[in-house]
Specification:
Blueprint (H helix, E strand, L loop, with lengths): L12 H8 L3 E5 L6 H9 L5 E5 L3 H9 L8 E5 L7 H10 L6 E6 L17 E5 L5 H6 L6 H7 L3 H4 L4 H23 L5 H13 L7 H8 L3 H13 L3 E6 L4 H5 L4 E4 L8 H24 L3 E7 L5 E8 L2 E9 L7 H10 L3 E5 L11 E5 H6 L1 H8 L2
Parallel strand pairs: 1-4, 1-5, 2-3, 3-4, 6-8, 10-11, 11-12
Antiparallel strand pairs: 6-7, 8-9, 9-10
Helix pairs in contact: 10-11
Length: 386
């Protein structure tokens, strides 16, 4: 990674340091999003911290025998979910730790999705999700990049800070190959690797559209349930995320067609789809950051009626719809569907336009520059809804 990453201190650092004084902390997120770098930055705030990685043979021996000094004040366990009965192991470490010792756990896959046997860790940890850089985080760190930079480089630290597009493209090719060949195979014994490869390619073309598992199954040659299972694996590994149409009944919402987005925006094909993916990732990252820090449940959804009226995004806090957002490349005329949902349900809305000369920032329906909205304080105020 570029040395410039050192300048860009992650926004979660202070939150994690605060939470470590109270409980264990889990940091999960996409591969190469900067979890290990953040963990090592946090270690600098301790005098006797120790980093242990389950993928390292010597570290596994230390972990197996708990062979660390009793005065170690911070234990960092990386990829520990690969250890059999890791939950019981962590529970034992935490419950028998000496005074002043705390624990930080990092992992690429969603730690909470693993179902190994073991005692519950409920009440013993806080969870933080670390995502790629978004315009809001970069702006909060005192740096700003163009919209084109965010769209072409994505938010993963190495390509985002690479010296040129060639280096960024080389990283992306290796990253995608590694995800499919290593992470997916290590997560589960997938025998149809060709089908998984084809699914990823098809999903890159279907970002921002309601997903049909049946249609994908016909294109790939596997059952709809297999397609759904493969997408669940991609989601568990933080390669993609899904959002669902808003419904007051969660069960009914999950039965409807989701829309899918990638954590690495440049993987998305199509200019409009890539723009919407950047907005989706920025919104999703922000609500996760707020949810992890204050515990209030937030959801990113979309709006769709039986007649086909649709709005790209709806921000929901504790089950209550708060704000609609529609993404456009250049159209400043208010979208008919924003107007429809506002008139019927009184939801406030913002139309986010990539190429916009004049904003309309007054009233319940606004037209805003997409990048400025994703970057700055208005974006955070809308999402906090305090």
């Amino acid at each position: 990674m570029s040395d410039r990453i050192v300048v860009m201190e992650r926004e979660q650092k202070s939150l994690v340091l605060s939470d470590l004084t109270k409980k264990m902390v889990f940091i999960s997120g996409p591969r190469q999003a900067g979890k290990t770098w953040l963990a090592r930055q946090i270690m600098q705030s301790y005098s006797r911290a120790l980093y242990l990685n389950q993928d390292n043979e010597q570290d596994r021996e230390v972990m197996a025998h708990q062979a660390w000094a009793s005065n170690t004040d911070l234990l960092v366990f990386d990829e520990i979910h690969k250890m059999p009965n890791w939950k019981s192991y962590l529970k034992g470490i935490w419950d028998t730790r000496p005074p002043g010792q705390t624990v930080l756990v990092t992992g690429s896959a969603r730690l909470e999705t693993f179902r190994q046997s073991g005692d519950s860790l409920a009440g013993r940890y806080f969870h933080h999700r670390l995502f790629p850089f978004t315009p809001a985080e970069v702006a909060a760190l005192g740096t700003e990049y163009t919209l084109e930079h965010h769209l072409s480089r994505g938010g993963f630290p190495e390509p985002f800070l690479a010296e040129n597009d060639t280096e960024a493209n080389r990283w992306r090719r290796q990253y995608l190959d590694g995800l499919i060949r290593e992470d997916i195979l290590s997560y589960e014994n997938i025998t149809q690797l060709k089908a998984m490869n084809l699914l990823v390619e098809l999903l890159r073309q279907r970002v921002a559209a309601p997903l049909s598992y049946q249609s994908l199954s016909e294109d790939i040659g596997v059952s709809p349930n297999t397609v759904k299972h493969y997408i669940e694996i991609l989601e568990a590994l933080y390669i993609v995320f899904r959002i669902y149409p808003f419904h007051h009944s969660i069960a009914r919402s999950l039965k409807q067609q989701p829309k899918l987005y990638f954590f690495d925006t440049p993987l998305v094909e199509g200019e409009g789809q890539r723009l919407e993916n950047l907005a989706a990732l920025s919104l999703y990252r922000q609500i996760c950051l707020l949810e992890d820090s204050d515990g209030q449940r937030r959801t990113l959804c979309y709006l769709r009626t039986k007649e086909g009226r649709e709005v790209d995004f709806l921000l929901v806090k504790e089950g209550t719809p708060e704000l609609m957002l529609e993404v456009k490349s250049s159209d400043r005329t208010l979208d008919d569907n924003l107007v429809y949902f506002h008139e019927r349900y009184r939801f406030p809305g913002v139309q986010l336009v990539a190429d916009l000369r004049l904003e309309s920032a007054a009233g319940p329906l606004q037209v805003r520059r997409l990048l400025d909205f994703l970057r700055h304080e208005a974006f955070r105020i809308h999402l906090r809804m305090d």
